[in-house]
Amino acid sequence: MKLVVDANILFAALIKEGSTAELLISDKLQLFAPEFLFTEFTKYEELILKKTHRSREEFNQLLEILKEQITIVPKKKITPFIDKVEKISPDPKDNVYLALAFALKSNIWSNDKRLKQGQEKITVFSTEELIEKTNLLKV
């Protein structure tokens, strides 16, 4: 399944071990993100480390794994869709994720309820919905 992954999903995985982190490393999902995504993690690394039970080494190892799992999409591929999403986006901060989803003809993985309820053009899956839909974490 092809998905644009929201930064908050990655923050959650880096802070806490659990199903989000497991899904992120699943080979059943094709994950994509805008190019600024990992810059955000560098910017907030100290804050994330304060909130997590992971050591800096564990944090960095997981971040490297995520960098391998997530395909970064350059801004130039997303830009042509920005005007389209500005008309439907419930929050300007989500424009880039919606534009990327249009560019890739994919869905979004986000726990942002406003993104899900504020527009109807792109399907947005929460972590819980993704687990239910894919059965990836069932033994």
The helix-strand sequence is EHHEHHHEHHHEHEH
CATH architecture group name = 3-Layer(aba) Sandwich
CATH topology: Rossmann fold
Gross geometry: globular
N/C terminus separation: 19 Å
Q: Count of DSSP helices?
A: 10
Helix/strand/pairing category = alpha/beta
> In which order are the strands of the major sheet placed?
3-2-1-4-5
- Alpha-carbon Rg, integer: 15 Å
| Name given to the CATH homologous superfamily | 5'-nuclease
Domain count, please report it.
1
Q: How much is the average pLDDT?
A: 88
Topology, number of strands: 5
Can you characterise this structure?
It is a single chain. The chain is of the alpha/beta class and 139 residues long. The protein has a single domain, classed as Rossmann fold (3-Layer(aba) Sandwich). It is built from ten helices and five strands. It has helices spanning 7-15, 19-24, 37-43, 45-51, 56-69, 75-78, 82-86, 95-104, 113-117, 127-134, and strands at residues 2-5, 30-34, 70-73, 107-109, 124-125. The protein has a five-stranded parallel beta sheet. The longest helix is centred in the middle third of the chain and has 14 residues, at 56-69.
What is the gist of this entry?
The protein has helices at 7-15, 19-24, 37-43, 45-51, 56-69, 75-78, 82-86, 95-104, 113-117, 127-134, and strands spanning 2-5, 30-34, 70-73, 107-109, 124-125. Helices cover 54% and strands 13% of the residues. By secondary structure, it is α/β, with parallel strands linked by helices.
